[in-house]
## 1
Amino acid sequence: MNYNNWQISLKDSDRYDLNNIENYIKTSGFEALKKALSMNPDAIVESIKKSGLRGRGGAGFPTGMKQSFTKRSCDNCNQIYVVCNADEGEPGTFKDRYIMEKNPYIVIEGMTIAAYAVGATKGFIYIRGEYEKSIQSMQHAIMVCYQHNLLGQNILQGSFSFDLEIYIGAGSYLCGEELTLIESLEGKRGYPRIKPPFPAEKGLWNKPTLINNVETFSHIPFIITNGSEVYASIGTSESKGTKLFCVSGNVKQPGVYELPLGITLRELIYEVCGGMEANYEFKGALIGGAAGTFVDVTFLDVPLAYETLKEKGATLGSGAVMVLDNTTNLKGLLSNILEFFKHESCGKCVPCRIGTTILYEHSKNISNVDINWMLQQAEYMAKNSLCPLGQSPILPIKSFSKYFNN
Amino acid sequence: MQNNKNDENNFEILNQFRPERTEILKALHSLQNANPQHYISSDAMKAVAKYFNITLGQVYGIVTYYSMFSTKPRGKYIIRLCKSPVCYMKGSFNLKNYLEEHLQLTASTENISADGLFTIETTECLGHCEQAPAMMVNNTIYSNLTREKIDEILHALKTNNYEL
Ligand SMILES: Cc1cc2nc3c(=O)[nH]c(=O)nc-3n(C[C@H](O)[C@H](O)[C@H](O)COP(=O)(O)O)c2cc1C
Ligand code: SF4
Ligand code: FES
């Protein structure tokens, strides 16, 4: 397989200068927007549905379906919002930063098409406060788009208008959770709302809100330009398109790589990343971040796709692949992840506030870890916590106990 | 007198924002960045409450929720060292000890170095894991850190007083 030929999110990003939109336009940027604005909005939603695109923020929910739910919730309403989730807080994940720094226009183009498809006139990009460069780059790109009539009133002299604004976070992992992000956007503490209702029904200021990850939006222009069949021909049966994989750890060339879903861990590590660093031996990986799952060497030939990983009790999540080796202190790492959850728990509900604390405190004593006891606690949390954060520690703990508890 | 002056400055900053609640985090970032000690003072919080027409308690609740904000004075340079999994695997806790010893920071110094230049904090994943270990100094990322590299960065900050 040629590993370099797959660019959707990062399309031509190395070939144009961010300060010069003409170059982006020359590499067929905004062609998709032009085409979309001449289409029936419902046809766009259909096309996204048919493409098989699934959300790249972690949960993998079908994007076209989310668009049609959002539309359906607004039978008689006067406002729909589109929100781009650029909070990227999942440990081990750094792909949205790449897109925003290297290809900001594609995010704007994708969001504008999505806004047109669902009938939204106002959008926000919620960027985590630590991503100074991404903030600068997106802010600049938005300004340039306004100057070129690609945002604002009567885009490209047509009847569609769309305003886009950046919102800056201030250091909270939980604010990446969609309803918490919306609370934060409204200028409040980041406390989760109870689901349902989902954002598609009642989101920002209780209006129907389409919220997608940066990478998800960045796939929309390709689908519009090339058609859903072409997109659906990339990937596996249930995981279509490319994915940005964030590889970290002791491999020769860690980094962000855009590849078709379904590539194996072996190909990713040994061919794309050049293999392990000298003197390091592959032991496994933590896939999907802290709210992800541990895998061991038996996973080397499992395709990295939603369905194949799920079959084996693992998850793809955000696309983080933290490579573990013979020098990794595995129990220390598990404890580090539990410290993360303790730090990021908002404390609103008891099972998670107490649960994350006792799990971390217990795991610190590395020589005396009772993994079965931890499993029980994490299961209790998963059943009784209010939001997905409290339901997450079970993922790394369970997979750890399966592969590394010896 | 001093207070009036501060108030004026605070409102000058706040006036750049629409008085809508959704602008509040941006406004708090600006107030904190404008303060030489990188924190949000009680005067600033009062100004925010007035400007956005919410209670002081609500402002305090917001400021204390988000980890990038501080209600206590900090050094001119805030060093935020990543302690999340990848940086942890690459030994970031050793670097934290090194930094603290080097800058002689303890609880009794309120986590500000004697020259008023540095405060050390830890943070969760900074999204630069392919270059772990990583840290942020004010708004700039430094990555692939080693002790030697940290020495260089601190030296440059101390001697040139970089504007970050
Ligand atoms: C604790 C928590 C943190 C999350 N952080 C992020 C994040 O940083 N970025 C993101 O895109 N999605 C994040 N998500 C997922 C979002 O809730 C949501 O599913 C996503 O924005 C939907 O976009 P998508 O359908 O395009 O994936 C997080 C979820 C949880 C529970
Ligand atoms: S599960 Fe945790 S993060 Fe979620 S509401 Fe409860 S305490 Fe807060
Ligand atoms: S784990 Fe430190 S930058 Fe991601």
## 2
Amino acid sequence: MSARIRESRGQEMVLTAVVAVVIVLLSLLPMLCLIKEIVAPGGVLSTVAVEAGLRSPATWIATWHTLVVGIGGTLLAVLSGTLVAVLVSLTDMRGRSALVLCYVMPLMIAPQVTALAWLQLFGPASPFLKLFGAAPPLGTKNPLYSTSGIILLLGVQYGPLVFLLVRAGLRKLPRELVEAARAGGANWFTVLVTIVLPLMTPSIMTAAALAFVSCVGNFGIPAFLGIPANYLVLPTLIYQKLAGGGPAVLGETAFLSVLIGIIAMAGILAQEVTSRRRDYRISSTSLPAEPYELGRWRQIVQAGMWLLIMLVLVLPLFGLVLTSLVPGYGIALTAKTATLDNYRFVLFEHDAANRAFFNSFWLSIAAAFFAVIVAVPVGYLIAWGKQRWVRLLNLSVELPYALPGVVLAIASLLLFLRPIPLTGIQLYNTVWIILYAYLARFLVLALRPTISGYHQIDRALEEAAQVAGAGLFTRMRTIVFPLVAPAAIAGGLLIFMTALSELTVSALLWSSGSETIGVVMFSFEQGGDSNYAAAMSVITVAVTFMLMLVTNLLAPHLPSGVLPWRD
Amino acid sequence: MARLTLDHVTKSFADFDAVKDVSIDVGDGEFLAVLGPSGCGKTTLLRLVAGFEKVTSGEIRIGGDVVSNSGGSVAPEKRRVGIVFQNYALWPHMSVAENIGYSLKVARLDKAVARQKVEDALALVNLQGLGERRPANLSGGQRQRVALARCLVAAPSLVLFDEPLANLDVHLRASMEDEFAAFHKRTGTTIVYITHDQAEAMALADRIAVMDHGRLAQLATPRELYHEPANEMVASFISQGILLPADVLTGEEGGHCKVRVLGRELVVRCRPGERPRAAARLCCRSADIEISADASGFDGLVKRAVYQGGAARIEFVPAAGPDLTLHFEQPDPVVLESGAQARLRIKSGWLIPATGTARDDAG
Ligand SMILES: Nc1ncnc2c1ncn2[C@@H]1O[C@H](COP(=O)(O)OP(=O)(O)OP(=O)(O)O)[C@@H](O)[C@H]1O
Ligand SMILES: [Mg+2]
């Protein structure tokens, strides 16, 4: 009897302990390390790093720039995302799922690819503009190398993020609330302004906070658009310092990365404070409202939406493909000049690019695989566990993802700069440090769908197995894992897609031999070889699309909302 | 005040008819209850009237104006109907006063006038002084009153209620019922009131429309519905009527005719013009059944006896019709027990009309 109790307790404790170790390693340790470096570099309390950072004018300029593009990008994303969400959710527009798929796509494309694609579209060398002979003369400055260019692309990149959250909110809006207003004499526009949007403020606020954190932490877009114009934001400033100074400047960059962290947290806190005052919890299981009939406006709205898709998705990708087919900078694309040489070069000839494809693929697979394996027990504890500390657990897993990637990258550097104590293993300057950072950063992408998977499963299924005599590990293996596997695997695929062309983390952590696709793309672009960068981008975008299609096959087994691009 | 007319209204969702060929004429100032089992299309009917759904065919007129037909539909905000939802549908981001004053604000009424009207509406539903509260801080009954006040403040000519009391407890229900009745008397507004509670419908309504599978089964006064159900569905739905096979032996005379039921002959009420026929149906209520020792009774077995305090509900299977079940109440002292043999008599009943269709007495 007591032996059996001990056995089941034991299994539970092993599970809890393993989860705790993983969380400490991946999330708490790097953050603590970062804070220690700021407060007490080298083990002695000191404010030198902070003071040096505060004194440097570059810090303040970059902070100002970060705020400008962060707030500008957020505003644009919130406006466009909310508008699209309202039109898609509340009107009788046709072709909704295709539209959602296309509109959400930029979210699945790496920011630096977006940046590259837009640059190719409007620059003087643009093969697209050359098709019409509309390209500005060579040597003209690309209009996107500017503050407004960065804001525009941040808005394009994160508008879909806002869209997804607001749309989820609108789906939960009970139709009676809208209908009561209409019966009270309000027309559709009045209902929208006085009822729908006020009720959606919590969703919009959450979305704005998320968009703000993403904009502030974004590296790819300001790196491609800002560095050429010498317009530095905090992440690119950190990159430049680290690229120039190496480990010697780690203390300084640690301060800067904490600064980004603080700005991001300020955004989240602002959202918390405003939404605490406006907690309109809607608790109803009613049907969503009947779509508003646009009537003769329908064609116009539909045309407008597809025009938007053309602008934010089709044209940039088209520009990207065109560039990847041009033999060299500034050459016009004709049937004669079109070539696949760029693809051949990056796939077979260029050593670093070769290594990058290899590295990125196995890093993404490893990160995805690991995350799926870990997400199942962690999700189990969070969704079904009875302990009180699970909320904290959830929070600490979210932290590395909620904070900008630069913060995690610097933290990883600090953590592994010296060999790991006792073992003497050196991760710094190897590909393993990138893997570590990926694991920490992306775990939550698999965890979230897994948790919603758990919430959809009737706990009784597991309890039935328990009654049948199965121990915790047996239940996990035979009952729980098969049930949540689709959700966890979908999360894994999301991780693979995100990690494949990841740049922010690897730009700070790479070393010769451990290049990633993002890094090589970036160095091609910086070296003026846009054609090679475009070819690599096209390949990753194609892989992403293919994976999205494959993931769609899982859709019938998934909780709704796991695949962002599915309506 | 307005008259509401539904003229052969049909509403289909895909290939499923939620409302089928329903014609109802609600008079000016009338209180009409719509009654029916779950899923029979009551809410859909209401939403058609309010304009939230479009009719598939047929026509709806409010106060003489066509508001819906297959050609088009007047927008809900132009119909001047008030609606009270089952889940209240109060806007959580507005105070009680803002909720109530919403339609006045939308109509751009003068602020002072609007404030006065809101005060009056609050007084009307006995909620003075609660204007600044948020709906979340109100009890269920208070929310229901706010919803009522919100719908009344614009003085709509037609008020629609969708099971307004379904979420309230029994006591609150009774007092709200009184308030609805008083409100109707005071304002004389035309009301369409959906409920699945027969007692509520009987207590409040001038007439009741019983719906079944999207069709109008019968439209009649509460008294008529109880005593003279037009078809088997209404007969069994209202107060658990008992249906028994019967042969009509004589033609109607003075509202009565002679029938044979379970092998016994008796005189029952019927429609004018009934003729002798076989395979008719008799509707009787538990009050029509009594224990009898003489030759007019029929034998059978007590299947179940459930004591309910002061009386027992007896379920009885007659020997002449083993697949029928009759139920009635025996007051204390209860002598019948399950398994016992007994002899019962039917005192009276109502002969279900042969056509089985609703008699349109809307006039
Ligand atoms: N938007 C819709 N699409 C498809 N079917 C619908 C829709 N709305 C209602 N129905 C169907 O129409 C039928 C009638 O629904 P309705 O809501 O009118 O029933 P009800 O009489 O109000 O039921 P209850 O008493 O349970 O509220 C139901 O079978 C329902 O499933
Ligand atoms: Mg209903």
